[in-house]
Amino acid sequence: MTSLTIRDFRPEDADAVAAAHRAGREHLVQTPEMFAWRAARQAKGAHYRVLVAELDGRVVGAVRCGVVVGTSAVGIGHANGSVLPGHRRRGAFTALLAAAERHLAGHGVTELHSWVDDEPGSLAFAAARGFTPGRTAHFAGRDLTVPLPVAPPLPAGVELRPASGFAADPYPLFEIDADAARDEPGEVVMDAAEYDEWLAGEWNRPDLDRELTVVAVVDGVPAAFSSATTDGADRYWSAFTACRREYRGRGLAKLAKLESLRRARAAGLRHAYTSNDAGNAPMLAINAWLGYERCASERKFIKRLDGRARPPQ
Questions:
Q1: CA distances for 218 relative to 97, 161, 251, angstroms
Q2: What is the mean pLDDT of residues 105-123?
Q3: pLDDT digits over 87-109, tens only?
Q4: Roughly what angle, to the nearest 10 degrees, separates helices 14-22 and 32-40?
Q5: DSSP-assigned letters across all residues of 81-100
Q6: What residue ranges define each of the domains in the chain, with the CATH number in brackets?
Q7: How many CB atoms lie within 10 A of CB 282?
Q8: In sequence order, what are the residues at sequence separation of 6 or more whose Cβ sits closer than 8 angstroms to the Cβ of residue 82?
Q9: How far is Cα 49 from Cα 51, in angstroms, rounded to an integer?
C-alpha cells in the first residue's frame, strides 16, 4: 500500500524539491540552495510556505504557496509546484494543492493564482480542480556559445554599468524595478513595492549575479537594467529587464540585456533562458533580436477559494 504524507519543507529536502521542479523543464534555472533560501525567509505578509509530498518515505514533489505581496490588491494568493514524472497520478499533487488552499484560505486568500505547464495533462488537471485559464507566458532559450548580435553604438550620455557598482546604494535600481513592475502585463497590478522587501528578496537573493546584471545610466541617472541570476555553473536566467517610464522608447533595455548576455558569455555560461507574458510585444521583440527561441509555455490558472464564481476578465 502506498503511503502519502504531506508536510512542511526541511532544508534536507532541497535537492529533491529542485529535481521535481526542473523535471522536464530545462528552461527553469533554480538551484536547491534557492529553494532552501526562499523557504527560510519570510516576506512581510506573505505567509510563504513550502509543502512537500512523500510517497513511501521519498520526497517526490512540492508546492510553494503564499499571499501575493507588493500589490494593493487584497486576497490574492499563489501556489505553484510539481511532482516527479514517475510519481504522478498517485494523488500527490492533489493533496499538495488541497493543503496549500487550506493554508492560504486561513490567511484571507480568496483568489488563487497558479502557473501551469501548457500541455494537455496539466491543463486538464487544473480545469478539473476548479481553475479557469488566464494569461499565457512563453519561455525562450539561447545558446550562449553562438555569437551575439553586434552592439549598436551607445547614444550620447548613456553608459552601461554592472549592478555591483551600486552596492553602496541600490535604491535607484529599486525605483526602476518598482516603476516597471506597475506596467508588467498580468492579472495583478504590482503597485505597492517596498524598498526593504526588495532589498531582502531581490537585491540580496543568493543567485543574483551583480556583475552580469547591467544598468543603463543616462546622464548619470540609472534608467534601465537587465538583472541576471545563474545556477553557479553554466546556466543564466534573465530575472527582470526593466526601464523607467520616462526613458522608454530609447532602446535602453535592449542595450542592457545585450551587455548582460555578453558578460555571461565571457564568463563561460553556455545556456540563457528567459520568460515573458505573451502580450509583452516589446520584450518579445527584443528577445527575438537577441536570438532567443521559444522552448516552452505556461498558462496562468485562477480559482476562487470563497465559493464565488470568478468575475469575467
A1: 46, 11, 12
A2: 97
A3: 998 999 999 999 999 999 999 99
A4: 120
A5: EEE-GGG-SSSHHHHHHHHH
A6: 4-109 (3.40.630.30), 142-297 (3.40.630.30)
A7: 14
A8: 20, 21, 23, 25, 61, 62, 93
A9: 6
